[in-house]
């Protein structure tokens, strides 16, 4: 099938949007990519802020025009939009009427509770399939007029999230007691500070940690993000990979839930029904419900490396043998499309 893929990504940066596009290509589809990143950064930091904040003006109009231009020239069967906060209803309506195509929207984010835009909400009824990883937003999508809402789990990317070679991992920045990868949030201090106070080594990668007000975690913060092969090394090299959720949205799992064991790391995450459905507690991962339980389990598994390694290996095997990867997710979406629209013809 011919698929016009609209997303924002930096080529070669290992971003999930680019990986989903590659999964479509690997399935044998003819994919034309429309990368919206150059338009979203138009105008630089200050002038561009106006366009990005209000989602209007020159770059916004150019994105709509480029989509319709590519639809007319490429004549795709599917218009796949990844995180379409900038795509307006009129654009989708025109694309569907001119080319007779179907529209699919995918986002791994809480797009209605946290990342909503007026254009996105108005465009929702024009998507034939809406894919979300957030169970708590399914009914919201339907209330906004979505007829077919497909709930998928968070995924890992086989091309990136894999067990790295030991030479790459065995560096001081990766060989630590525990690691947390994620942006700053006040709620995360409540779990991370007790680890450091218990003399458990910790590395923190992510953005926004310069806003952290105390001194407890200062020596643990790396003050930068980490992606690609180095991301896999950080998750694999740490003895414990921490899975912390945000109270800002009612998530029960995140992409790191899958990525940590996919990279061969030991997953130590907050206990939720979704986490318990993905990995068996005590055999494929470990979970906690309080800061005290986190510290207690961290101490235990740091003192029992063989048991820790056995659980990490079982968690990795669960990832490999389950449809937790990005390719499987994309394949399931396309199969759902084919069952819904092609078999009915």
Q: Which helices and strands occur, and which strands form pairs?
A:
Blueprint: E1 2-7, H1 16-26, E2 30-35, H2 37-40, H3 47-54, H4 58-74, E3 78-82, H5 89-99, E4 102-107, H6 118-123, E5 129-132, H7 138-143, E6 149-151, H8 166-169, E7 178-181, H9 186-197, E8 202-205, H10 228-237, E9 240-243, H11 255-262, E10 267-270, H12 273-278, E11 286-288, H13 291-303, H14 305-321, H15 326-342
Helix pairs in contact: 1-15, 4-5, 9-13, 11-14
Descriptive overview:
- The protein has 345 residues and is an alpha/beta fold.
- The chain has two domains: 172 residues, Rossmann fold (3-Layer(aba) Sandwich); 156 residues, 3-Layer(aba) Sandwich (Rossmann fold), CATH 3.40.50.
- A six-stranded parallel beta sheet has the order 2-1-3-4-5-6, sandwiched between helices. Strands 8-7-9-10-11 form a five-stranded parallel beta sheet, sandwiched between helices.
- Helix 9 crosses helix 13.
- The model has no long low-confidence stretch (mean pLDDT 92).
Question: Summary?
Answer:
This protein has two domains: 2-155 and 325-342, Rossmann fold (3-Layer(aba) Sandwich), CATH 3.40.50.2000; 166-321, Rossmann fold, CATH 3.40.50.
């Amino acid at each position: 099938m011919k698929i016009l893929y609209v997303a924002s990504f930096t080529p070669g940066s290992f971003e999930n949007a680019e990986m989903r596009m590659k999964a479509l290509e690997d399935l044998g589809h003819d994919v034309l990519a429309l990368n919206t990143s150059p338009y979203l950064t138009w105008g630089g930091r200050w002038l561009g802020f106006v366009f990005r904040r209000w989602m209007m003006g020159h770059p916004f109009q150019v994105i709509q025009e480029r989509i319709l231009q590519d639809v007319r020239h490429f004549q795709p069967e599917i218009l796949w939009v990844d995180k379409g906060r900038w795509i307006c209803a009129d654009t989708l309506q025109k694309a569907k009427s001119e080319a007779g195509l179907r529209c699919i929207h995918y986002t791994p984010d809480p797009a209605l509770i946290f990342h909503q835009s007026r254009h996105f909400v108005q465009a929702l009824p024009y998507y034939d399939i809406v894919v979300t990883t957030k169970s708590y937003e399914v009914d919201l999508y339907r209330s906004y007029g979505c007829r077919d809402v497909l709930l998928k789990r968070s995924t890992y990317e086989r091309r990136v999230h894999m067990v790295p070679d030991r030479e790459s991992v065995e560096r001081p920045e990766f060989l630590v007691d525990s690691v947390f990868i994620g942006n700053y949030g006040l709620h995360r201090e409540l779990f991370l500070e007790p680890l450091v106070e218990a003399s458990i080594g910790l590395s923190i990668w992510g953005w926004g940690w310069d806003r952290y007000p105390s001194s407890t975690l200062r020596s643990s913060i790396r003050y930068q993000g980490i992606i690609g092969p180095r991301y896999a090394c950080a998750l694999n090299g740490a003895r414990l990979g921490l899975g912390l959720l945000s109270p800002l949205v009612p998530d029960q799992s995140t992409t790191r839930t899958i990525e940590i064991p996919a990279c061969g790391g030991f997953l130590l995450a907050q206990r939720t029904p979704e986490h318990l459905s993905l990995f068996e507690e005590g055999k494929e991962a470990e979970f906690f419900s309080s800061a005290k339980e986190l510290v207690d389990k961290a101490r235990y598994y740091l003192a029992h490396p063989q048991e820790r390694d056995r659980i990490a290996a079982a968690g990795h095997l669960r990832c490999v043998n389950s449809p937790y990867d990005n390719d499987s997710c994309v394949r399931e979406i396309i199969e759902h499309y084919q069952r819904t629209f092609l078999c009915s013809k």
